[in-house]
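It is worth pausing here to work through a concrete case rather than discussing structure prediction in the abstract. The textbook approach is simple: state the sequence, then state the predicted structure, then interpret. We follow exactly that order.
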Amino acid sequence: MKRILLILAILLTALTCLDAQKTKQNYVIGFYNLENLFDTYDDPVKNDAEFLPDGANRWTEAKYRKKLSNMAHVIAEMAKSNKRFHTILGVSEIENRLVLEDLVCEPEIASANYQIVHYESPDRRGVDVALLYRPDQFTLLDSESIPFTFEKGVEYADTDTAYFRTRDILMVHGLLADEEFAFYVCHLPSRVGGKGGNLRSRGAQIAYEHAMKMMEKHPDIKIVVMGDMNDNPTDESMAVCLHGKEKIEDVTPTDFYSPYLSMLKAGYGSLCYQGTWSIYDLELVNYNLATAPNGGLRIQPVTNNKKKWYDGVIFKRPWLTTQEGQYAGYPFRTFSNGAFVGGYSDHYPTYIVVGK
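Step two, the predicted structure:
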């Protein structure tokens, strides 16, 4: 009799655990640089000449459709890996809203019913940032396009500030699981020509100051700053200007937790240039999301390598990686040495998971 009761107790415990697993809800929040997702139409106010049928890239409708299919496939494969689509996906290097409308209708991801938040920005290359969200999980309250401005009295070396134009920072504010969230999507100034360090620091400063004001208005708000930062998490823009900390226990209410900082030190990378791997594709979370002092959602460990857990994921797969030639081991991109090779992006996507 005691043995039967013990077996019943074990079964009841197992069923309870299964029920808890079913009701537990995690949410995937990530970022992906889509590497020049341009349509085939000439926009006279954008620098899209290379991405036209008669342009340098011979950007035909067939190539455009292949690019859309590839981007959708990556998003769908991440959903398979996570057993759910991203709730929030920030993107960069998109020409306009049209390309996102085409993307979210791709058969592999149409069931996610992604909605779009996008503003045109003054970038000289003609690319913007945007955010995709699942309306069944995230309720949009408001959004804002935050312009890049120069700080008065500060010298910006090698920069014609009167001419300089870059991507605005996108802020999206809403409710996730009845909790207040703000998401910032950034694509900070490029490193082309070896310049721009102080520009990226200025961009990070703009995002940080806006986030601090949001926290003053909404003390319990949980914030994610994401994007292609064109800097590593160890660089000044992320570690100093955005107050990115490597360890959660070091994060104060005016800091951000930077989960990819320890991953960079461990040898991870989201892109490679001249044989050096970096993590420019980041998500940083504020104190409320790192520690959940009042309960609710918080960042979760998701990557286990050699018995060490990390709180970020770099979605790297063999089919997303060049397998041979000069760039073997690098992300498999759309063009290589000027030739269309039908790949995906020069960046791997990254994401975090939040849950209770």
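Step three, interpretation. The chain has a mean pLDDT of 93. The longest helix spans residues 2-23.
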